[in-house]
Amino acid sequence: xxxxxxxxxxxxxxxxxxxxxxxxxxxxxxxxxxxxxxxxxxxxxxxxxxxxxxxxxxxxxxxxxxxxxxxxxxxxxxxxxxxxxxxxxxxxxxxxxxxxxxxxxxxxxxxxxxxxxxxxxxxxxxxxxxxxxxxxxxxxxxxxxxxxxxxxxx
Length: 154
What we know:
Elements: E1 3-5, H1 6-13, H2 17-26, E2 31-32, E3 45-47, H3 48-54, H4 61-71, H5 75-87, H6 91-102, H7 107-119, H8 127-139, H9 143-153
Antiparallel strand pairs: 1-3, 2-3
């Protein structure tokens, strides 16, 4: 059985934490109890197949493996999941994954997160946050972010 965290379930389905807890208490979703999560975090785990059905997502085995890696704090996988959901035009989920990867120092994710904030993609438009993330990415050597920062100085 593949498992997925409650946090990722929220991002994939767009449902609130409260709604998901209600569905768990009603037995609509199955909670998986694990003694060891592998990353030291206390998390609530759900059956991935149930979550994918709830999110109306069909993933192949490679995408499931990528999702599993992303859910276990792999920044590269989080960036890829963000791009995947961006292409599906599921912008809130894309924003979620870009945020996680950016907070793990992925310069590419920082650039994309900055774009989300600049254009209001998956989140309310906030120019200050857009500039902050793009500047962080530029400082880490991201070429696109560096060009964007140069354009702002012109």
